[in-house]
Amino acid sequence: MGGWRCTGLSWPHDGPVLRWARDEGTGRGRSSVLAYGKELGFRAEGERHCVGARGNVCPLGAGVPVRSTGARCAECARLDRAHSVAADTIADDPRTYRVYLAWFGPGMVKVGITGEARDAARLREQGAVVFSWLGRGPLMAARRTEEVLRAALGVPDRIPYARKRAVRGELPEAAERAAEIEELYRRAAALEGAGWPEALERLPFEAVDHAGVFGLDGARPAARVVTGLVDGGVVSGRLVAAAGPDLHLKTVDGEIVVLDTRLITGWDLVAAGAREGMSVPLVAVGGGGVQDGLF
Description:
This protein has helices at about 75-80, 120-125, 140-155, 160-165, 175-190, 210-215, and strands spanning about 5-10, 15-20, 30-35, 40-45, 95-105, 110-115, 130-140, 200, 210, 225, 235-245, 245-250, 255-260, 270, 280-285. By secondary structure, the chain is of the alpha+beta class. The chain has a seven-stranded mixed β-sheet. Strands 5, 6, 7, 8 and 9 form a five-stranded antiparallel β-sheet that branches. The chain is built from six helices and 15 strands. The chain starts with a strand and ends in an 11-residue tail after the last strand.
């Protein structure tokens, strides 16, 4: 890439896109649309640095740990979170929000909220295999509904990525996936009027399945996970699936390795041969790979 740093993986439409910025953080960025079946390879150079906050360059140019999925120094992380919806510091936000139920695997369902203007991008960014909208309304009504459902239904608002990765290669059929989230939707809808804010409009059930978008139909289970990059370390393989921030790569040895793209932010990356293999630290799936993935 020469002078470009990856700023993360996004899901603006129906496929994954890697975003890039100049290493000095100025000028327009660029993006790379990823296609399943295509080869991908790059080499990390130098040291990993803080990616800044809210579109601003880190004033310290601070280094960050290679195993951190945040890629921000403590100060930039604080500034970034202070302006997030999750921080509950923008109670007067005039935008409309949606409450959703998301399914990641058998027994793994969470409740959450997202800005209505973002549509389902947030669900794809989290790797939700199936989801349904539940309601829409002001931020605080959506937040209150989320809290009520978490307590009443016993579902979390966060599921670690390690758990999501462990089941992606052995998903049940689409009908079974939809049935599990539909049952939870019915239980949630039954709570309307019992702590459900009046300002939140309930939306009808509709199971949206992302397995095809993620390339997970017929996918093989992943064997190992990248735990971080190193100076000179190479990541390469053929892209066979993607979900949330994760790329599933088939290596020259034929195994499936998961790369959490949050680990490559903050590095200077240059192109590498797609057949060079992996020369970065790996761990078995389910073996405590990426350590601080929250969602």
